[in-house]
Each structure stands twice: as structure tokens, then as C-alpha cells.
Design brief:
mainly alpha; about 5% strand; elongated
Length: about 400
Amino acid sequence: MTELKAEPVTETTAAEITVLEPITDLKIIKNVQEFVWNFSEAKRFIEGTIAKYVGLVVTNENLADMESDQKQVASIRIKVDGFRKKVRKEMDKPYKVFEGEIKELLQLIEKAETPLKDQTAKYEQERIAAKEIELNKFAQATALSMGIRNNYFVFSVDSQWTKRGAKDPAVRKEIVSLVEVMLGNQRRADELAEMEKQRIGLIEGQCIACSVGLKTPVEPVDVNHLLVGVKLSDIPGIILEECKKRADMEAKAAADAKAELVSRMAAEMVVEPPVITQQNNERFELGISFLNDGSECDMSCEDEIENSFLNDTLPLSQAQEYANQNLHVPASFIAPPAIPALPTMPPLPPMPPRNYPPMPPAQPDLYDVLLKLPRITIQQATAVRNFFPTQGVTYEIIKQEKVVDWGEF
């Protein structure tokens, strides 16, 4: 092994650099510094000096002596510690030289190491980026070959796959497994979507079929809250039950309307008996004075006179004529124009009740309906056909065509 030696620095040619042997270890070639001092003598002196102070007790009588002795011992300590610092400073000199030389070597190494380190890191980053692009392309191609749609392709490169020690076949096999999981998720989502589509179609078809004859058909929004979490096989029964409830409500409403109509017609046909005004009887006294001959005649009538007597009273024009002839006619005798008397009407015989023919029951309006059921499956069409006979409805298939969904191609 080549040893490090302190030799004069000379110029080195390229040929000389190529033949230098590599340094495999660092070691101290020579350490000539030797430090020897009078440790034993100093120790004996200090032990002899402090021996007389061991176990002493300070009193008023020896206080001055003890303070002087303490100062003497302290001076010895200061002298010893000062010697330590001086020796350490001298012994640090060769180490500081050595430390400077080491730093110089490290600076030389760093000049070459830093560029190499940067280039290595750059190469590694480029290698990882290229590997990620390669694995992403492989995953996309695998997903495309399996028929996975973009919204179900969720992929990211694992950092373990880009390490130098990673085996490419094992990495690709793991990626294929992940893509197969994506395919399974897509298939399950498609199945759920198809089931929901069939569910919606079944609900709509059952609402149409079961609402035949109803004035207000049952809509899917009317029964959706009843069908949450219900199996497909139970949906027709639930919708049929709701349609029956609505039919009962409509029948009751029609019956109530009919009863109200009959009651109103019967009330209008009642004949009120005629109102007969009672005839009033009046009593009065009549006095007539003849002023021309000075004679006076009094007439007193206290008989009950019917209303017909009023027809014989003096009209207003004749009463005025009598007044002009100096006849004294009381004001009460001057009657208003005569009102013709009403003949007494015999009471009407009781009217026999009329037997009206019974009202015919309300019949629903009938229609010829041409339905179009778009995009239904054979199972849904069979359900509709089986339901029609239960409602007494006949049907005729005019035309049917198979739907071709161009989106599948």
C-alpha cells in the first residue's frame, strides 16, 4: 500500500497520473512528538503541601493563618491549570496542521464528486420518467384491449416498479391484475345500470298498464317512494295495489257527486203551497150632514163589512164632487182608488209524489288508445300482455320492431 508522505509539489504529466496506484487506506506514517514532564515530583510536592491542611477546623484563633494557607493552595491550583493550557496549545499545533491538510484533500475530492453526483441523479430521474411512460403505455394498451372505458381507468405507477432491481415481467403481471380489477368494477357498474334501466322501464310500464280506466293515471313519481329497495318481482303487485286504491277513490268521488246531484234535483222539484192572504174586517161610523135645509141625518153602521164593501165607497172624483155640492164628507171616507178583490182560492189538493226514473250509473268514458311502448324487453312486454286480461282489456299488436342501439358499435 502506498503511504502518504510530505514531498515537494511538482508538476505531474497525464502519463504519470495513469500509473498512480489507488489509495486503499490512510495511516499515520510517523509521530515524533514525545511529551514528558515532572508529574511525579509535582505530585509529591502537592501531597506534602496539602497534608498539613487535611482535617483542620477554622476557629477565631487560626482564621488568619487558614486564610493565608488557602491562598497558597489556590496559587498552586492556578499554576497547574495554567501549565495544562500551555501544553494543550502546543500539542494542538500539529493537529491543526493535520486538520488543514485533510480539508484540502476533501476539497479536491468534492470538485470531482459533485458533478458526478449531479449527473448520476439526472440520469436516474430520466430513467424513472422513461420507465413510468413505458408502464403507463402498457397499462393503457392492456385496458383498451379489455374494453375498459376511460372513466373506469384509474392508474398510477408504483414507485417500487421503477427501481433498478424491479423485474419487468413481474411488474407487467401486477399491472395486468390491476387492470382486471378495473374491468370487474366496470362490469358491475354496467349490470347495476342495466338493472336500474329495467327497473325504470318496468315501473313505467306497470303504471301505464294498471292505470287503464283511471281518470288520473298513476305516475312513477307517485309510487317511487314505495319501491325503494323492493325486488323487481314485487313491483307489479305494489303498483297494482296503488292503482286499485286510486280507482276506489275515484269511484267514491263519483258516487258522492251523483248523490249530491240527485239531492239538488229533488230539492228543486218541491212545490211550495200558495200563500193565502187573510181578508181584513173593518168597522167604521159614517155621518152625513145636509147643510142646505138645516136638517141633519146621522147614520151609524156598526156591522162587519167585508173587503168587498170597499168597492162601493166613493171614489176620489165623486167624493170631490160631493164636497163641491157643500156635502160634508169625512176625510176617512175619501178612499184611495179601489183595489180589485182577490177571489178566495180553495185549498189545493195534496200533490202525489212523482216517481222519477232512477238515474243511470255513471259510466266511464271509453277510448280507443294506441299505445307505443319504446325500448321494452321481452319480459316487460310479457308482463304487460299478462296484465291486460286481468283488467278486461283486449289488445291488438299493430307493429313491433327490434331496437338497434348504434352506440354499442
